[in-house]
Design goal:
- This protein is of the alpha+beta class.
- Helix content is about 55%, strand content about 20%.
- It is built from 25 helices and 21 strands.
- The two termini are about 25 Å apart.
- About 0% of the residues have low confidence.
């Protein structure tokens, strides 16, 4: 490229810094947003998988009676079993810093640092090496409010307490792996200790196991194959005279929070497309303005003999340089912010980031977009600009183009002027708003979509909240009491009704079984609950069939997950469940909507039938309590729970767990707070693209009208009048985009909510909206419109009349 062309390109970059910065910002903001989205998607899907695989996760769990080490060793020789490990878990309660009791699971491991499966990662301190020590998982350790090296107080089965020293902080990525979707968030505090410490916790047979973890030797990611091996393990244990409670099989590589990653990935994909679309519009808009300002120079170059292709090459190279600078700014910034965000997400989603690094595919995609998108966006403006004739370029009048004055005197503006309802400066401002219709359309498109996504983030929060309210229809009690063993219902009822503030008590039966397939093999674990016939503490949302009635004997109602996992089951069919060592038949009378993939397989039946199956007629270990005051706050429920626990303790009835209704509802939400916060962050990112578009448009409009501003000042217009004209123009564009964005927010909200809901619940969302998002975006649009208008307006009004009249 010869020297004059290089000089032309250099002068275009440095001659108008504001214009150059706008072009670079228009390209960079899109690359930045796309870079963050691509990096998050790549790292989330990769690092979660890699870090989970590094723990040697099991794909089978069989819950059993207490079995010795020799039995576990024998299971390792079964065909198809690769690795086997005994598991001993005890559920007790510990006291937190506030003095309240909370559930905790204690896992006894002989060699914690050398577990063959489900290997936990030590973060701080050390493993338990002595009796009375424990290493605690970091996920809920903060709830205890004690430091590393401090002591936790454990409530023993006898009612006494025992202090254990916390010597280590660990991270177990397999928490919730065998309890269905949401298991990590629902799981209690976890700790690992030596079997010797179980004796201090009043446990018998401290060296025996209550379950078996196994990894198949082949096809570890095939749940169906794992289920076959799990059934084989169960049969072998039963053949040796031990009882089997249930068995669960899963894909070995599937992190417990994969369902959340799927939801996040779906949102990332949708927003990625939107940002790509917005960025293209933004760049086109900005470059159209750039080429429009260069029409006079194009005419001069053509007068001097430049051919159309030569002129086009100059602008192609100029735009390529703008793209390179934007890439140099956006790519490292996006990489840094993405990994900072991932560090925050890692603890919430329970995975280990593999360290900050350059993602070459993402980098290549950003570089390609930096070079390709601006060229594609600029192709039409360059082609149109370079085809203009010399006469049109030098005169500034395009063929077939009417004057701005004529446009300003037409239609509504002409009527307003004649009626003198609007001042002449305001008429000029209104005319200027619609003068560049193509630019206005592109600006409105970017800002409208950005606002629609921003508003949608708040609507999605409401939609997810409505879904959680729906789940709450199955947990309507104020306090849920779980006892350490079944007690006579009449005795517990009497004690609970004596507690001040208690209005009603329901005894529920419950059991965990496994579905038996037609070929005799075991399927997945099923949580079966049985309320009394007169229960008012569950309000089901029926999808098919009906709910339970008092005359039912063997009826059962299944949640919606059965419809997707076992599509062969229909209304009226008889299914077989293995419960407490018995094969039992149940008639399906209905399907209800619960929490989809997030809640696992759930079923409801009548109390009398399940109590008969479990041999616990007129007994129960679960009681649901309703307070006398309706609509109790969380604090009031906590106070009632404390009174209930004190009463039961005085009556020598041991409580294994007590939870308020508000707490159950909150944990049922699992990771939705993460999802909605993440969505809001991405919505802000998308809105940023739209706001840059408005800023660029207003800056370009003011730059183009610099001579017009000079003329107005020359004939007596004050700086304030000029400022008001430009502010009106910016505010009008912002408010038009707000109205369009508010309307577009409804379908986008539904799209985003459905993508999350289908990934998490395997069901469409329960759509809702809130005025909060609309109100916040209105405030932001006003602020953005003001800022985007006042800054270029102030710059223009600071120029002297001579400078603006000489501006080109």
């Amino acid at each position: 490229m010869n020297r004059p062309r290089r000089h032309k390109i250099f002068s275009d970059i440095t001659g108008s810094p504001t214009r150059s910065l706008l072009v670079i910002a228009s390209i960079a903001v899109g690359l930045f947003a796309i870079g963050i989205i691509a990096t998050l998607y790549t790292i989330l899907t990769n690092d979660m998988h890699v870090s989970y695989a590094a723990t040697a996760p099991a794909n089978i769990l069989v819950r059993t009676d207490l079995i010795p080490q020799a039995e576990v060793d024998a299971l390792g020789h079964l065909p198809g079993v690769g690795v086997v490990m005994g598991a001993r878990q005890v559920g007790l309660r510990v006291r937190n810093a506030q003095g309240a009791w909370q559930s905790m699971d204690f896992a006894a491991v002989r060699q914690p640092a050398a577990m063959p499966l489900n290997q936990a990662r030590l973060l701080q301190g050390r493993w338990a090496t002595q009796r009375g020590e424990i290493a605690v998982d970091q996920s809920k350790f903060g709830d205890l409010g004690i430091p590393l090296g401090g002591f936790i107080t454990v409530e023993l089965p006898s009612g006494k307490t025992r202090a254990l020293q916390v010597v280590g902080l660990l991270q177990d990525l397999t928490i919730g792996a065998f309890t269905g979707g949401g298991g990590f968030f629902d799981a209690p505090l976890q700790g690992i200790l030596l079997p010797d410490t179980l004796e201090l916790l009043e446990q018998d047979q401290i060296y025996d196991y209550s379950g078996v973890f196994a990894l198949t030797s082949t096809q570890p990611d095939d749940p169906a194959h794992a289920a076959v091996i799990a059934a084989q393990i169960s049969r072998a244990i039963k053949a040796d005279g031990y009882g089997v409670g249930s068995s669960t099989a899963r894909a070995a590589s599937e992190h417990p929070n994969t369902y959340l990653i799927n939801a996040i990935s779906g949102v990332l994909f949708i927003l990625g497309l939107l940002v790509l679309f917005l960025s293209g519009f933004l760049i086109t808009n900005t470059l159209q303005s750039l080429i429009g300002q260069q029409i006079g120079q194009i005419g001069i170059m053509k007068t001097l003999g430049a051919r159309r292709m030569q002129v086009a090459v100059i602008y192609t190279v100029l735009i390529a340089l703008f793209g390179a600078v934007a890439f140099a700014i956006a790519s490292p910034s996006a990489n840094f912010l993405s990994f900072a965000l991932l560090d925050l997400l890692a603890g919430k989603l329970n995975f280990v980031p593999q360290g900050q690094r350059i993602l070459w595919p993402v980098l290549a995609a950003e570089a390609g977009l930096a070079m390709l998108m601006p060229q594609l966006a600029a192709w039409w403006p360059i082609w149109q600009g370079t085809r203009i004739s010399v006469q049109e370029a030098l005169s500034g009048i395009r063929a077939g183009e009417g004057s701005g004055e004529e446009a300003g005197k037409s239609g509504l503006l002409h009527t307003l002027g004649r009626m003198r309802l609007v001042s002449h400066p305001m008429l000029i401002a209104l005319r200027n708003t619609f003068r560049r219709k193509g630019r206005l359309l592109l600006t409105l498109t970017t800002l409208t979509l950005g606002g629609a996504v921003f508003i949608s983030a708040f609507n999605v929060q409401i939609s997810m909240g409505k879904y959680m309210e729906q789940i709450g229809q199955y947990f309507l009690a104020d306090v849920n009491v779980n006892l350490d063993a079944p007690y006579r219902v009449s005795r517990v009822d009497q004690e609970l009704m004596a507690v001040p503030g208690v209005a009603r008590v329901e005894a529920w039966a419950g059991a965990r079984g496994e579905i038996l397939l037609p070929d005799g093999s075991s399927g997945e674990s099923v949580n079966v609950q049985a309320p009394p016939p007169s229960s008012t503490l569950v309000k089901p949302i029926l999808l098919q069939g009906r709910w339970l009635i008092e005359s039912d004997s063997d009826a059962i109602v299944l949640n919606e997950l059965f419809l997707s996992k076992y599509p062969a089951i229909h209304l009226g069919d008889v299914i077989r469940l293995h419960i407490v060592g018995k094969d039992t038949d149940w008639r399906v009378v209905g399907f209800f909507q619960f929490a989809g993939k997030n809640g696992g397989l759930n079923a409801y039946t009548r109390y009398e039938r399940l109590a008969t199956v479990t041999g616990l007629t007129n007994q129960a270990a679960t009681f649901r309590v309703v307070g006398q005051k309706s609509g109790m706050t969380a604090a009031e429920q906590d106070a009632l729970a404390q009174r209930i626990e004190a009463r039961l303790k005085a009556a020598h009835i041991n409580v294994s767990g007590i939870e308020t209704g508000s707490y159950v509802t909150s944990i049922a939400g699992g990771g939705f707070a993460i999802l909605t916060a993440f969505l809001l962050f991405l919505a802000v990112l998308t809105a940023l693209v739209g706001s840059i578009g408005l800023t660029g448009t207003m800056s370009m409009n003011v730059l183009e009208r610099t001579r017009e501003i000079g003329i107005l000042r020359a004939i007596g217009a004050s700086d304030q009048t000029l400022m008001n004209m430009i502010l009106v123009e910016g505010m009008l564009i912002g408010l038009i985009s707000y109205v369009l964005g508010a309307l577009l927010a409804f379908p986008i909200s539904k799209l985003l909510a459905d993508s999350i809901s289908l990934a998490v619940f395997d069901a469409p969302s329960n759509f809702g909206f809130t005025p909060l998002g609309f109100g916040i975006w209105l405030g932001l649009v006003i602020v953005l419109s003001f800022a985007a208008s006042v800054i270029p307006a102030r710059n223009a009004t600071r120029l002297t009349v001579r400078e603006v009249l000489a501006y080109e």
